[in-house]
Request: fold
Amino acid sequence: MISAAAGFTLAVGTFVPAAGQSVEETYRDVCAGCHGETGTSEMEGIPSLGGQPAMATAMQLFLFREGRRPDSPMTPIAQDLSNNDLRSFSSLIEKLPPPEPLAEGRDDPAYARGKASAAKHVCRSCHEADYSGRQQMPRLAGQREEYIKMALAQYKSGERVGSSAAMNELMADISEAEIDDLAYFLARFGG
Ligand code: HEC
Ligand code: HEC
Reply:
């Protein structure tokens, strides 16, 4: 997917933003193809980024760069990013509009179950009452359902590690059925 877009130096699957190119141009040329022009992803398995707290984005880019979220399309992309690049992408992404939550299905039993589960596990104590995220805690409201499901399953299995073990520890007590309900709820929350 990373084509030899103008303004980029490509080397063994990695790239460095070209000198003189703005972070907006880099986002449009490289990131938008997967994450969407305005930060709302239309592609399965690819998270929406719009409205993510800058610190949460910087942390994830750091984890990709350091190989702590390996085997991801992001690993080579993040490889040659400097700390300054991490900051520039993060502040740009924070200003993109948050994704629109799914409107359909808010009356479904799965939504009510997910809401109850989120309340029981007090997800909002870290991710905020409106699930917009804070500091290194990502925004969850309106995120793609299958991406939330995948993230939670990976924290539970230990396949995904984070800036802390908070999510891994939390997921130990949460069943697969509950994961489905939480993802259902969060993808539709807000709006
Ligand atoms: C080839 C498609 C592709 C391109 C291009 C791409 N990404 Fe990604 N990105 C992904 C996928 C897939 C994931 C989910 C990775 C995973 O779970 O392993 C992801 C995850 C992320 C995350 C973590 C989000 C979260 O909520 O966990 C950030 C931040 C991110 N990308 C930023 C960027 C930036 C900045 C660029 C441009 C420099 C970019 N991406 C280019 C596919 C892409
Ligand atoms: C103690 C604080 C804390 C609590 C409570 C918490 N989280 Fe998290 N969560 C985090 C942190 C910190 C991260 C980022 C971790 C990392 O670096 O991967 C995160 C990441 C996530 C992600 C990955 C998002 C992405 O875009 O990559 C999901 C999904 C998530 N949490 C869902 C939940 C749900 C659902 C609950 C309640 C069942 C919950 N969290 C409760 C701290 C918390």
In short: Residues 1-12 have pLDDT under 50 and may be disordered. Residues 32 and 39 are 7 Å apart (CA to CA). Residues 1-2, 30-31, 33-35, 45-47, 49, 57, 60-61, 69, 72-74, 77, 89, 138 surround heme C (ligand 1) (CB under 6 Å). Residues 8-95 form a domain with the Cytochrome Bc1 Complex; Chain D, domain 2 fold (CATH 1.10.760.10).
